């Protein structure tokens, strides 16, 4: 497995892959079973698999956890090597964004859900992905459905800007007790960790209640009521949005994303499910 630490090395690697299918798995490292499932999917369907490991500063707000974000390069490299990855790209942030002036943003879709409290987040995500897509020119790029808004935004931006890359969504990976696997789960105290599976429980309740023609507010109430049985859970949002514009729907009469963000102490967790009418 090659370790690429700067853009120059990455471009040299890319030039050697002419006419091969390339699968890119963009990550921020601290890899877990969720990332592994993206890598496995990429490994099945591409000649070359590249994993980027980069805690991207431009997608973190000033009071967010950029510095605290967990990092473990040695363990990440081992997971990649064992999963048959051909190259990891892990650039230095200062060098990667040297005198950077150009950003990629999307209208409307960034404004709802997580965008309400993280206004610059998706601009940072689209900017780093644009750089990665230009450097590696992948055939396929893999994204977890846990970051549902990110997946929908990336899919739309890639379509709008004619990147010519297939954006492949991969199902959410969960712990045995239902908690969606996330690098941020390590922030939870023992007590918070015990409380956090309420999110999946609430979404499961929502899934078994959702019906075409149902009022979104009734579904939201079912989910919120369940979450509120857990004292440590502090709800940021539970919303039902359409999957094209990411706008709230009144009635479930089209394909929707049911998404939530909930805080346990200082840790903000997200989870969701998609429903097709
Ligand atoms: O989902 C993530 O880990 C990040 O947002 C991504 C896609 C790697 C961009 O930095």
Automatic annotation (TrEMBL):
EC number: 6.3.2.1
An MF annotation (GO) of this entry: ligase activity
Keywords: ATP-binding, Cytoplasm, Ligase, Nucleotide-binding, Pantothenate biosynthesis
Binding site for beta-alanine: 59
Annotated catalysed reactions: (R)-pantoate + beta-alanine + ATP = (R)-pantothenate + AMP + diphosphate + H(+)
Residue positions binding (R)-pantoate: 59, 150
InterPro entries in the record: Cyt_trans-like (IPR004821), Pantoate_ligase (IPR003721)
Main subcellular location: cytoplasm
Annotated residues for binding of ATP: 28-35, 144-147, 181-184
Span of the signal peptide: none
Annotated metabolic or biological route of this protein: Cofactor biosynthesis; (R)-pantothenate biosynthesis; (R)-pantothenate from (R)-pantoate and beta-alanine: step 1/1
Family: Belongs to the pantothenate synthetase family.
Job description of the protein: Catalyzes the condensation of pantoate with beta-alanine in an ATP-dependent reaction via a pantoyl-adenylate intermediate.
NCBIfam families for the chain: cyt_tran_rel, panC
Official protein name in the record: Pantothenate synthetase
Record lineage: Bacteria, Bacillati, Bacillota, Tissierellia, Tissierellales
Gene: panC
């Amino acid at each position: 497995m090659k370790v690429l630490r700067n853009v120059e090395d990455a471009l040299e690697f890319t030039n050697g892959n002419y006419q091969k299918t390339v699968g890119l798995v963009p990550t921020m490292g601290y890899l877990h079973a969720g990332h592994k499932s993206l890598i496995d999917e990429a490994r099945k369907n591409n000649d070359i698999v590249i994993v980027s490991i980069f805690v991207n500063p431009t997608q973190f707000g000033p009071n967010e956890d950029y510095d605290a974000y967990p990092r473990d390069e040695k363990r990440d490299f081992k997971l990649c090597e064992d999963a048959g990855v051909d190259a990891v790209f892990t650039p230095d942030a200062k060098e990667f964004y040297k005198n950077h002036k150009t950003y990629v943003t999307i209208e409307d879709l960034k404004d709802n859900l997580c965008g309400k409290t993280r206004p610059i987040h998706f601009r940072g995500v689209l900017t780093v992905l644009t750089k990665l897509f230009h450097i590696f020119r992948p055939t396929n790029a893999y994204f977890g459905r846990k970051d549902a808004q990110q997946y929908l935004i990336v899919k739309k931006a890639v379509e709008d800007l004619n990147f010519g890359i297939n954006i492949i969504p991969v199902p959410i990976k969960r712990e045995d007790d239902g908690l969606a696997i996330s690098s941020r789960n390590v922030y939870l105290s023992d007590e918070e960790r015990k409380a956090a599976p309420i999110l999946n429980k609430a979404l499961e309740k929502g899934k078994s209640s959702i019906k075409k023609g149902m009022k979104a507010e009734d579904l939201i109430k079912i989910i919120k009521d369940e979450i509120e049985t857990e004292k440590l859970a502090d709800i940021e949002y539970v919303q039902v949005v359409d999957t094209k514009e990411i706008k709230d729907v009144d009635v479930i009469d089209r394909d929707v994303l049911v998404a939530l963000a909930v805080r346990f102490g200082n840790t903000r967790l997200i989870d969701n499910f998609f429903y097709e009418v």
